[in-house]
Task: structure prediction
Amino acid sequence: MTGRRMQVSVIGSGAAHEAVALEVGRRLAERGCVVVTGGLDEVMAWALRGAREAGGTTIAIVPGESHAEANEWADHVVVTGIGHARNLAVAASGEAVIAVGGSWGTLAEIGFAMRLGRPVVVLEGGPAVEGVPRAATPAEAVELVLAAVVSS
Amino acid sequence: MTGRRMQVSVIGSGAAHEAVALEVGRRLAERGCVVVTGGLDEVMAWALRGAREAGGTTIAIVPGESHAEANEWADHVVVTGIGHARNLAVAASGEAVIAVGGSWGTLAEIGFAMRLGRPVVVLEGGPAVEGVPRAATPAEAVELVLAAVVSS
Amino acid sequence: MTGRRMQVSVIGSGAAHEAVALEVGRRLAERGCVVVTGGLDEVMAWALRGAREAGGTTIAIVPGESHAEANEWADHVVVTGIGHARNLAVAASGEAVIAVGGSWGTLAEIGFAMRLGRPVVVLEGGPAVEGVPRAATPAEAVELVLAAVVSS
Amino acid sequence: MTGRRMQVSVIGSGAAHEAVALEVGRRLAERGCVVVTGGLDEVMAWALRGAREAGGTTIAIVPGESHAEANEWADHVVVTGIGHARNLAVAASGEAVIAVGGSWGTLAEIGFAMRLGRPVVVLEGGPAVEGVPRAATPAEAVELVLAAVVSS
Result:
C-alpha cells in the first residue's frame, strides 16, 4: 500500500460547462481525489481550479511541448508532446473519468476510457454515447465514479 | 502534383462485419484509393484483403512493436509502438474514414477523425454518433467519402 | 505566478546505479523540486524513493495501461499507454533532465530532451553523448541543472 | 508468406547530407526495399527521392496532422499527429535503419531502433554512438543492413 490518492480525470470542453466543471473539481478534491485534465482552458481549467480551491492536488497533461501551455491551476504538468494522442494519457491516468460537456476530442477520450475499462460517467450536456452512464449533477457523477472504482 | 493516390482509412471491428469490410476495401481499391487500417484482424484484415484482391495497395498501422503483428493483406506495415494511440494515426492517415462495425476503439477513431476535419461515414451497424453521416451500403459509403474529399 | 514547483526528470537504468539515483532524487527534493521518472524499476524507482524519503513529491510516467505498473514511490501516476513513446513525455516533463546510468531508451530520452531545449546533465557512468554536459557527483548534477533552468 | 517487401528506414538531417541520402535511397530501391522516412525535408526528402527515381516505393511518417506536410517524393503518407514521438514509429517501421547525418532527433531514433532490436548502421558524418556500427559509403551501409536483416 503506497497511500497514493485516487486519481480522477475530468474531460470535456465548452465555456458553458465551466461552472459545472468547477463543482466537479471541488467535489473530487473534497473526496480526497487528485484531479487530472488535459490542462488547457474551459472545462480543463475550471475542474483544476475547483480542485485547487478546495485544497486538492491537480495534474495537467498537455498536448504540446511546453509547461507554459498548462493553465494556472495545475500543480504538476506532464508535457507529452504528442498532440491529440495525449487524450489517451488523460483517459488512462484517471482511475475513473467524468465528462463535462465536450466535443470530438472528448468522444475520443470516452472511447479510450471505456476501452481500458475505466469507469466513465457523462454529465448531462455531454456527448450521448450508448452504453456510458450519465449523471444529472456533479454530486451524482462524483459518487457514481467513486463507487465504481471501489467496486472494481 | 505528386500523383500520390488518395488514402482512405477503414476502421471498425467485429467478425459479423467482415464481409462488409471486404466489399468496402474492394470498392475503394477499384476507385483507385490506397486502403489504410489498424492492421490487425476482423474488419482491419478484411478491408485490406478486399483492396488487395482488387489490385489495390494496402497499409497497416499497427499498435505494437513488430511487423509480424500485421495481417497478411498488408503491403506496407507502419509499426507505431504506441498502443491505442495509434488510433490517432489511423484516423489522421485517411483523407477520409469509413467505419464498419466497431466498438470503443472505433469511437476514439471517429472522435479523432472528426476533430481533424476528415470526412467520416459510418456504415449501418457501426456506432451511432450524433453529427456523423451514415450509409446503408458499402457503395454508398465509398461514394459519400470520395465526394466529400473532392469537395473539401 | 502559480507557485508550481520545478520539475526535474531523472532518466536511466541499471541496478548498479540505484544508489546514485537515490541520492539524486533526495537532493532534488531537498532543493524543492518535484521528481519525474518513467515509473518502473531500478533508476526510475530509486530516484522517486530518494525524493519521497526526503519529503518530496514524485511523478511516474508509465508506458503501459495500468496504474499498478508504477513503482511504490510514485505519488502520482500518469498512465500513457504509448510504450516507449512515453520517453518523450518523460524528457519533456522535466524542466531539466539528469541521466543516471542508462541504455538505449535513455539515449532516446537524451535526444528528445536536447531537441526540446531542456538542460540535460549525464552523471559519470551514463551514456557518453557529444554535446551533453556531464557531472561527477549527484550534488554537481543537481546544481548544474538548477543553475541551467534559472538562467534559461 | 505475403510477398511484402522489406522496409528500411532512413533517418537523419542536414542539407550537407542530401546527396548521400539520395544514393542511400536509390540503392535501397534497387535492392527491392521500400524506403521509410520522417517525411519532411533534407535527408528525409532526398532518401525518398532517390528511392522514387530508382522505381522504388516510399513512405513518409510525418509528425503533424496533415498529408500536405510530407515531401513530394512520398508515395504514401502516414499522418501520426504525435510530434517527435513519431520518431518511434519511423525507427520501428524499418526492418533496419540507416542514419545519414542527423542531430538530436536522430539520436532519439537510433536509441529507439537499438532498443527494439532493429539493425542500425550510421554513415560517417552521422552521430557517434558507442555500440552502433558505422559505414563509410552508402553501398556499404545498404549491404550491412540487408545482411543483418537476413541473418536476424
Notes: The CA atoms of residues 63 and 84 of chain D lie 6 Å apart. Helices of chain D lie at 18-30, 43-53, 86-93, 104-115, 138-151. The two ends of chain D are 17 Å apart (CA to CA). The first helix of chain D runs from residue 18 to 30.
